[in-house]
Specification:
Elements: H1 6-23, E1 28-30, E2 33-35, E3 44-46, E4 58-59, H2 64-85, H3 94-111, H4 114-118, H5 127-138, E5 142-143, H6 145-205, E6 210-216, H7 225-229, E7 256-262, H8 265-302, H9 305-308, E8 322-323, H10 326-351, H11 374-411, H12 414-429
Antiparallel strand pairs: 1-2, 2-3, 3-4, 5-8, 6-7
Amino acid sequence: MNYSDFDTRVGELRQAAVDAYMRGRGWVPEDDLYILNPGTTVLAITRPGPSGSGGGEAAGPATESVTEEFTVAFSRIYDEIDALVFAWSDLPDPEGVTPVIASCRQTTQRLSGAAAASAKGLLGAGEIASYLKLIDQNTVTLSGLTIATFKAKFLAQLGIVIGGLHTVSLARGANISAQQGIWLTARKNVMTVLTKARDSMRAIGNGETESVSAVLDVAGWAGRGLALFASSGVSVAVEVANLGISILSDTNARAARATYKAATFDEAMRGLGTALDQLNGQIKDEERAIVANAEQNLASVRNSKSSYDLTQPPLATSDGIIVLDRPLVDEIVKAYLPEIAAELEDIAAKDRDCDASSRVVRSSELGLSATGPSNSIRELNWQLYKLLKDLAWEVDNGARVLSLAIADLMDEDENAAAELVRLANQITQGAPTDPWR
C-alpha cells in the first residue's frame, strides 16, 4: 500500500461508505445503481463512481425531491470522510529528510575521534583527530611552567571539548533521524487504516459484518533514531562520558492495534475516526519524547559550560617557555591548529543544513504542531553552531598567541611581544560569538 495511492484509496472509501449507508436503508448496490427491491428497477438511485463522487440521482418514476434527498445525503458522507482524512492527505515525505540526515552525519563524522586522540587512543574518522594526534606528538618539544599550563588547559582539553560537541551532534542526529522513521511508518499506517475502513464499508454494503484490525507501529520510533542515523557507518560511540547528554534508545512505546467491529455505516465511521485518532496519538507521543530529549540535552549543555567552552589561560609573555625544536613547534602553530580552526569553521557553516523544520511540515492537527519537535531541535542546532564558531575562534587565537610567544622568545621580535599583549587582552574580552547568549 503506497502512500501515493492516498487519493485513490479515499475515493474508494467514499464510494464504499455510501454503499454501507444505503444498505442500512434497504438499498442494495448493483453495478452503478442502488435498487430498493432487488430484481426490479422500478426505483433506483445512481451509485457513486470508483473515485467516490457523484451519484444520488433518482432513476425511474421518481420525483425531483428524491434526487435532492440522496444527493444531499451523499454529499454529507463525502464531507464527513474528507473531514476525517484531510489532515492525512499531505504527510511529510521521509525522503525529504534524507539530505538533512546526511548533513548531520557529516558534522558527527568530522567531529569524531577528537577525544580519543587527546587521550592518546585510537584515531577516529575526522581530520581534527589526526591533527590533534600530531599536536600531541610535537608538544614534547615545548616545556616550561607557562607552556605547561597552556598545554594542560588548552591543548589537552581541545579534543575533549570537541568530543563533547560530537556527542551533542550525535543526539541531535538521532532526533532528526527518528522523525524520518515516524513519517515513513505513519504513511504506511494511514494507508492500512484507510484500506481496512474501505474493506469494512464494502462488507457492510454487501450485508456483512466486518471486524477491523490495523497495526499502528509509529510507537517507539523516537528511540530508533540512533540506529537509523548510524546506518551509513557514522561513528555513534559516545566519546566523552558524564556530560549529561542523553541519546534516545527506547521510549518503552510499543505498536498497538486499532480494532473495531462494524455492522453499520455509523459504526464503521466511528471506527475509522478512532483509528486515525490512535495513530495521531502515537505521533504525538513520539514527538513529545523527541522534544523532551532535545530540551534536556540543551539544558545539560547550558549547565555545563566548562565542558563545551574552551578557555585559554593567559599567555601575554614568552617567559616560562622552553622550545626544544622550533620546526616542530611551527608545525603546531602554523599548520595543525589553523587547520583545526578552519575545519571547525567549515563544520559550523555546513551544519546549518542540518535542519529538518521545512521537511516535516504537516497539518497542525497532526502531532504536536505543524512542525512537530522542530523548534526544540533548532534551539539545540543553534547552540551547537555557536559553540563551534566560538571554539574555532579560540583555536585560531590559540595558534596566534603561541606563534607570537615563540617569535618573542626565539627571534626577540619586539613587534611580536607587543602584539602578544594586545591579543592576550583581546582573548580575555571573549569571542565575538558568545555561545551562551
